[in-house]
Design a protein that fits this description.
With 303 residues, the chain is mainly α. The chain has a single domain, classed as Orthogonal Bundle (Farnesyl Diphosphate Synthase). The chain contains 13 helices and two strands; from the N terminus they run ααααββααααααααα. Strands 1-2 form a two-stranded antiparallel sheet. Strand 1 (102-103) and strand 2 (106-107) form a beta hairpin. Helix 7 packs antiparallel against helix 9 (178-204). The chain is globular. The two termini are 37 Å apart. It binds geranylgeranyl diphosphate (GRG). Residues 52-53, 55, 85, 88-89, 91-92, 97, 104, 126, 156, 161-162, 165, 188-189, 229 line the site of geranylgeranyl diphosphate. One of its GO terms (cellular component) is cytoplasm. This is Geranylgeranyl diphosphate synthase. One of its GO terms (molecular function) is prenyltransferase activity.
């Protein structure tokens, strides 16, 4: 069947995000009880339950439901994705990395708990992510659970987030080519979003064709997420400085608007949205409504 371009199906997206977000927050709260040793669990909970849009868990659940699985099949993986995302933020904020004082509007983990505990809270969240999927996924074959665990591991390690971070650090203060910028974005941001969608599909019982179709959708929205972030960064810093958009000189960090201009960056974002929607054209538009709207949300988000 040929994919068809369809208009965005009507859907209560805001309510959907709130409802799924609440379910995820409840499951995360239960996944990390405040136990002995208290300080490390306080630090894990502090960062994990500090808000955040919960985009990765919701993508995972939406993908699982699209292929016919119930939310409960994907919930442990959805939680694991947020644990991994949170640990990457804790480590990214450390003095040896970006040295940030604020995250999600609150003091960063190392500012509150000290650097030693922040490192360990990240490590513990990473380990718990894998344990949580392996121990708490119910009614999914072990083959599928193992496949999802492998997908998660590859998204995080030296072929995934860590690769992106390493190349990002190496590129600091240097002129960065478009292909290096894309490498950084694909690895630091898109890989985990890809794992979210792919793992959701695996847990939901998708066949191999569907998993790969949804992987393509996820690759497009993964890069889109970061291109939009770059555009937002530029617009925000320009507004703050009362400058014209497109002339941001506040940091030497490479971004899409800086390398190709704001208009081309916006065109690229539109292209990526179209590519993502094309993959969804193979599915019933009503069932795919959450993923259509998630792509559109990522394309037009303001934070
Ligand atoms: C993963 C083992 C391991 C180590 C960490 C530090 C590091 C290696 C990688 C950096 C990863 C990083 C900080 C990527 C940026 C990801 C990103 C786009 C963050 C913002 O995501 P949002 O907008 O944030 O979804 P909220 O707060 O809404 O969750």
């Amino acid at each position: 069947k040929k994919p068809q371009k369809v208009p965005l199906p009507p859907f209560g997206f805001k309510e959907y995000m709130i409802q799924k977000g609440n379910q995820v927050n409840k499951a995360l709260d239960e996944a990390v009880p405040l136990q002995h040793p208290r300080k490390i669990h306080e630090a894990m909970r502090y960062s994990l339950l500090a808000g955040g849009k919960r985009v990765r868990p919701i993508l995972c659940i939406a993908s699982c439901e699209l292929v016919g699985g119930g939310e409960e099949l994907a919930m442990p993986t959805a939680c694991a994705l947020e644990m991994i995302h949170t640990m990457s933020l804790i480590h990214d904020d450390l003095p040896c990395m970006d040295n940030d004082d604020l995250r999600r509007g609150m003091p960063t983990s190392h500012k509150v708990f000290g650097e030693d505990t922040a490192v360990l809270a990240g490590d513990a969240l990473l380990a718990l992510a894998f344990e949580h999927v392996a121990s708490n996924t119910k009614n999914v074959s072990s083959d599928r659970v193992v496949q999802a665990l492998a997908e998660l591991g590859s998204a995080v390690g030296s072929k995934g987030l860590v690769a992106g971070q390493v190349v990002d650090i190496e590129s600091e203060g240097k002129e960065v080519s478009l292909s290096t910028l894309e490498y950084i974005h694909v690895h630091k941001t898109a890989k985990l979003l890809e794992a979210a969608v792919v793992c959701g599909a695996i847990m939901g019982g998708a066949d191999a064709t569907s998993v790969e179709r949804l992987r393509k959708y996820a690759r497009s929205i993964g890069l889109l997420f970061q291109v939009v972030d770059d555009i937002l960064d530029m617009t925000k810093s320009s507004e703050e400085l009362g400058k014209t958009a497109g002339k941001d000189l506040t940091s030497d960090k490479a971004t899409y608007p800086k390398l190709i201009g704001i208009d081309e960056a916006k065109k690229f974002a539109a292209q990526l949205t179209d590519q993502a929607n094309q993959e969804l054209g193979f599915y019933d538009p009503v069932k795919a409504a959450p993923l259509y709207h998630l792509a559109s949300y990522i394309a037009s988000r303001q934070n």
